[in-house]
Amino acid sequence: MLFFSELGCQSKMKPPEPKPAKRVFFPQYITRDLANGMRVLVIEHHEQPIVSLRFLVKSGSAEDGDLPGLANLTGELLTKGTTNRSAVQIAEEIDYVGGQLVSGSDWDATYASASILRKHLDVGLDILADVVLNPVFAENEVKRVLEQRLSALLQKKDDAGYLAERKLNAVIFGAHPYGQPNIGTEHSVKTLKREDFIRFHRTHFVPGNALLAVVGDVTADETLWGKVEKFFGSWSGPTPSARPVPPVKDLERRQFYMVEKSAAVQSAIRVGHVGIARNSTDFVPVVVLNTLLGGYFNSRLNINLREGKGFTYGAGSSFDARQYPGPFVVSADVRNGVTDSAIVEILHELDRIRNEPITEEELEMVKQFILGSFPLQIETPNQIASRAIDLELYGLPRDYYDAFNRRVETIAAADLQTAAQKYLHPDRLAIVVAGDSKTVASKLQKFGPVEVVDADGRNISP
């Protein structure tokens, strides 16, 4: 068999030019507020006979106060028994009709979601309403969940990446809620009691603080509104007052920390500072900027540290945009011997993207990646429900995703450099390395004083 190269034809063969990405629009939705104040979103999506129900209250781990992990564990306990069903009954009933039920929490919301066949919509609404309105927080379930969480936290002390991220957040956010781990601490988990979960639920699970998205093979008619009213209409309660949140101050200089993990053969590097809020008017250019810097395989950080230097299996960056400005983080796990060199390259890439012109070729690759990925994020009813409810949660306009795509298309290289100079601060960030301080700490002294801490954050500097 002859190949093109053997025939001397390889240089004449050109791959076909890619076609422009097909424009995909986010589905339209309608809303209605029940008399009790709960907002309901409905999106018709008739590709499969499935309905996704996504319920949330606009209170998450930012409301934990002095008990980190409270919202996260409350979310986990929602499906562990109600005044009408035991945890086993809940699982058996949803399984019997081929449905799925999950619950949890993030920084800005606590939620429960159900996916159900259209013909079993009433069953799905009944079970969902029961777990979010009537959780009992049984003592035996609370004890079991707390014991599991404490065991998980102890295991995480052996996870260098977790240790580095926890210390990084504590440094850049200080007393702000984001400075605490949302999964809790050993101290808080040992402190939490059943009454704390009851109080969190009573305070935050009220109709004026709640959203419900119904997405799938439904028709937004009076029949559907009647079903929602049947299961949620009698719910009542006052909307909670907003908790005062301490302001976050940007770091004034670079700060260096080493989290001790004796005998580790790798260093987990986490570099960052405060980023942006989800409703920022600069969100779109920041998304494009971060994708170029460290948000996909061909990003500058990955090409440099992985492909160019061979320091790591992967390097990346992220802006975790929340109700309040969340963290910007660069992440890389590298072998001990190149820890300092990897940090040098990370700082170099932060400086370069701020100060050097971005090529049109790079920009076009990033745009096509973002625009090409978007359709994959709104394929299922559950994906659509999650994105639609985010619009309401963060007060974004209904055409936000369509406008997002149009704006990505029009982003210029100069826009990214402006965003980089505004939102990336290589001279005012925290650098945290979790690893073997005996091997690595001396290498970091070239950057400045390094504070060494243990897995609990206590200073153990020599």
Topology:
Blueprint (H helix, E strand, L loop, with lengths): L29 E4 L5 E6 L5 E8 L12 H8 L9 H10 L3 E6 L4 E8 L3 H13 L5 H18 L3 H14 L12 H6 L2 H11 L5 E7 L5 H11 L22 E6 L5 E9 L8 H13 L4 H9 L6 E5 L7 E9 L3 H17 L4 H14 L7 H13 L6 H11 L2 H11 L6 E6 L1 H8 L5 E4 L9
Parallel strand pairs: 2-6, 7-11, 7-12
Antiparallel strand pairs: 1-2, 3-5, 3-6, 4-5, 8-10, 8-11, 9-10
Q: How many extended strands?
A: 12
How are strands sequenced across the largest beta sheet?
1-2-6-3-5-4
Count the DSSP helices: 16
Instruction: Report Rg.
Output: 25 Å
Largest sheet: 6 strands, mixed
Helix and strand composition category? alpha+beta
* Beta-strand percentage range: 15-25%
Distance between the termini: 68 Å
Shape: globular
Q: Helix amount, in percent? A: 40-55%
Order of helices and strands: EEEHHEEHHHHHEHEEHHEEHHHHHEHE
Low-confidence parts lasting 5 or more residues at pLDDT below 50? 1-13
Q: Give the overall pLDDT as a whole number.
A: 92
Question: Quick recap of the structure?
Answer:
By secondary structure, the protein is an alpha+beta fold. Helix content is 40%, strand content 17%.
Give a written overview of the molecule:
This protein is 40% helix and 17% strand. Helix 1 crosses helix 7 (194-204), helix 3 (121-133) packs parallel to helix 8 and helix 10 (300-308) runs antiparallel to helix 11 (339-355). A six-stranded mixed beta sheet has the order 1-2-6-3-5-4, sandwiched between helices. The protein is globular, with a radius of gyration of 25 Å. The chain has helices at residues 70-77, 87-96, 121-133, 139-156, 160-173, 186-191, 194-204, 222-232, 283-295, 300-308, 339-355, 360-373, 381-393, 400-410, 413-423, 437-444; strands at residues 30-33, 39-44, 50-57, 100-105, 110-117, 210-216, 255-260, 266-274, 315-319, 327-335, 430-435, 450-453. The chain has 462 residues and is of the alpha+beta class. The N and C termini lie far apart (68 Å). The chain has 16 helices and twelve strands.
